[in-house]
Every structure is written in C-alpha cells, then in structure tokens.
Design goal:
Elements: E1 8-14, H1 17-34, E2 37-43, H2 45-49, E3 53-57, H3 65-71, H4 73-90, E4 94-98, H5 101-113, E5 119-123, H6 135-138, H7 145-151, H8 153-161, E6 164-167, H9 173-178, E7 183-185, H10 190-193, H11 200-206, E8 215-219, H12 224-244, E9 249-253, H13 260-267, E10 274-277, H14 282-288, E11 291-294, H15 298-306, E12 310-314, H16 318-327, H17 337-342, E13 349-351, H18 357-368, H19 371-388, H20 393-409
Parallel strand pairs: 1-2, 1-4, 2-3, 4-5, 5-6, 6-7, 8-9, 8-11, 9-10, 11-12, 12-13
C-alpha cells in the first residue's frame, strides 16, 4: 500500500477581502496538485471555506490608507506579532504573502531576521502603478541614483527576503528585472475565476428583474468606510435612475456578512428597489448585468476580467480626502484599473467631488441609452483582457509555488 503523502503546510497572510479570495483560489489549485494542504492564515471567509484555520478575520479590520492604518496600529501590531509567533512555532513549508505590501514585506523581513528557513512567496506581488504612465520607471537604468533608490525600496525588500514573486499585473515588470527579483508574470487569476454559476434568467429572477428591463449592479466596496461614503452616492444614483427609467432593476451583492446591517440601514431611505444578494452571487451579477457601478479596487478588476461595461465611482471621507490631496504625492493620470492598463480613458471614472449621485446617474443613463458606447467599451475591455490574462494562471502559480518550496527544502 502506498504511504499517505505528507500535507503541504502553509501560512498565508491575506490582508483584506480581495486577498482572501485570491488566496483561497490558490489553495484550491495547490490542493489539486498535492492532494493535501494544511493552512493557517490571516484571512476571511473564502480561506475558511477552503479549509484554512483562520487566526483573524482581516476583512473585518480592513481600513483605508495611511490614516486608517495608523489608527489601527495597536491592533495591527498584535496581529503582526501573532503571525510571526505562529509561523516560528509551526515552521510551515512556506509563507505565502498576498498583496498588503507594508504589512507583508515587514513580515518577510522579520521572519528572515528570526531565521525562518521555509520559502517565502509573494502572490499578487506589489507593482509600481506609476510605471504604467511614467516612462522613467520603464527606463529605470537611465535615471538618477536618487530616483532609482526611491523606486527600488519595495523591490530591494523583495530581493532580500522573498524567494519568489508571482506578479498578476503587466505593470512595471522592467523594475522586477532591474532589481533582480525572482519573479514570473502569471496573469490575473480573475480571468479564470470571474465566471457565473447561475444562468442569466436565473440571476435576473433572483434580482427581481421584470421582462427586458435593464439590470444595474451596485458594488460600493468591502470596507465600512467605503460603504458609508460611496454607498450613499450609489444608492442616491439608483433613486435618480429609477425616476427616469422606472423599469430599471438594481442589485447589490454584500461583500462581507459584517456589512449587511450597515447596507440595510442605508437602503431605508432609497427611492429605488435595490435587491441585496449574497456574496457568492457577486460574479453572477457582474456577468449578467447590463451595467455595473463599482467602487475603485477589485470590483473594477472583476468587471474588466468579465468584459462587463461599468462606471468607477470613488471618494473618501472629507477629512481623508483633504489629507491625501494636500499631504501625499501619489498621483496617477487615471485610477480605474482598466484605464491604467489601457493607457487611456475607456470607462468613466468619477472620483472625489465628481463622485456624486447626480453624476453617477447621468453617466449610467447616458450609457444605457447608447448601445454604440456600450459596444465600444466591451471592445476596449477585450483589449484589457488580452493584456492581463494568461492561460491557466492559477495552475501555473501553484506549480511555481511547489517548485519554490522544493528548492528551499533542497
């Protein structure tokens, strides 16, 4: 009788809801290859469903930007120390870091300082988004020493402490080459995971859509702050649209169970019938909606992967907006993921003061009334898909993870 295989033992650090989903998909791909995977994680519901022992639900603690993280510094430090302690005690075969650059690069550094001997693999590895529009990053060798030093901080940390970086975005790969990172561009896993499980008629029935009425999906984000600020504008836009297109139907998938009460309270004043859907209906809604209105972030990636026309709307609490407008230098010519990848404006993005119920409604009504604009957006999104998608992304990532672990184990 053949001896049972020893399970692959992993620690996964996924900082928020999108990272949790990516991590769970990778765990499933690894389990198919190895037969057995044991996972301890910082994550959320998707990793739990994949069989992981989740030490802390990071989706509940997700916050926005520098200020939000500073306010949560004591909790983040406890979480960091918990991760280090568990890893050093359990000595897993590998630590897999998912996104969340500041937390995870520091985790990698401390683990190496403590002589952790397993593989450290960065999945959804950090990229320099400015490289998509600023040619200096693509020609980094010709820039000043100071410019190279500023650009190279995250890459030097990866080079020193990370065995393998798996990059899902075709942005700034020249920087990975220049700074000598062991990496591979594996393509965006959403290209193969954003697939509906319900048929179009089933989803429309679930969303209470009548006849041939347009279905508009609303996704206000996965953090409480986002839902509070952006959700108000999306719900207000739905009310305006409903006045002009009375037959229009609206659906909103709750990103995390902890947000349901907050969203239900916000819907009490809505002048539109907005159907709440469970988190697992997210991809069905994206696949079968006529138009999506989404917060910046993962939702724009999902809509791009599905080729679904969408509008990006994003704003911060006024105090946070003032801080980022006046005390940070991070600027991009576009913030919506499809626009960054395409290098031009292919979907409407309404940010800061432009992110209002009236502006969102105007953009949605215009698009719904113009099949030529919608068709052009579908063609442009197909171009984005051709840049971000590679065949069998998850299977290839799992293969590379196993190879990296094997090299570490000698």
């Amino acid at each position: 009788m053949e001896a049972a295989k020893t399970p692959l033992r992993l620690f996964i650090s996924a900082g928020e809801l999108s990272g949790d989903v990516h991590a769970a998909r990778l765990v499933d791909a690894l389990a198919k290859r190895t037969g057995s995977v044991e996972v301890i994680a910082l994550g959320s519901n998707s990793l739990k469903a994949a069989g992981a022992k989740v030490l802390f639900d990071t989706a509940r603690g997700a916050t926005l930007g520098v200020i939000g993280n500073l306010l949560q510094a004591p909790q983040k430090l406890r979480l960091f120390n918990t991760a280090v302690r568990n890893i050093m005690d359990a000595k897993p075969d590998a630590v897999i870091l998912i996104d969340s650059r500041f937390f995870n690069l520091n985790l990698a550094r401390v683990l190496r300082q403590k002589c952790y001997q397993g593989a450290i693999i960065y999945y959804v590895a950090p990229v320099m988004w400015q490289a998509a529009s600023d040619a200096r990053y693509r020609d980094i060798a010709q820039q000043s020493e100071q410019f190279r030093a500023n650009a190279g901080r995250r890459f030097e940390e990866m080079r020193k402490h990370v065995d393998l970086a798996l990059v899902i975005y075709p942005v700034g790969l020249e920087l990975y080459d220049y700074f000598g990172i062991n990496y591979e561009f594996v393509g965006h896993p959403l290209c193969e995971t954003v697939k509906p499980t319900l048929g179009k008629d089933e989803l429309r029935a679930l969303a209470a859509v009548e006849g041939n009425a347009p279905l508009i999906g609303l996704m206000p984000g996965s953090r409480k702050e986002e839902v509070s600020v952006i959700g108000r504008e999306l719900i207000g836009a739905a009310s305006i649209i409903a006045r002009q297109i009375p037959c229009a139907a609206f659906a909103l998938p709750v990103a995390h169970p902890s947000l349901r009460g907050q969203i239900q309270a916000m819907l009490k004043g809505a002048k539109a019938n907005i159907k709440l859907l469970e988190p697992e209906r997210r991809f069905d809604l994206i696949a079968h909606s006529d138009l999506m209105v989404v917060a910046s972030g993962t939702a724009t990636h999902e809509c791009a992967a599905a080729g679904t026309p969408h509008i990006m709307a994003y704003r911060l609490h006024p105090a946070l907006d003032f801080f980022y407008a006046n005390f940070t230098r991070f600027r991009l010519p576009a913030y919506a993921f499809p626009n960054i990848i395409a290098g031009r404006r292919i979907i409407p993005e309404l940010i800061r003061s432009e992110c209002s119920a009236a502006n969102i409604a105007d953009a949605a009504i215009r698009l719904l009334g113009s099949e030529s604009e919608m068709e052009q957006m579908r063609r442009d999104l197909a171009e984005v898909r051709s840049k971000i998608c590679k065949p069998n992304s998850l299977d290839r990532s799992a293969e590379l993870v196993i190879e990296a672990i094997s090299r570490r184990m000698g």
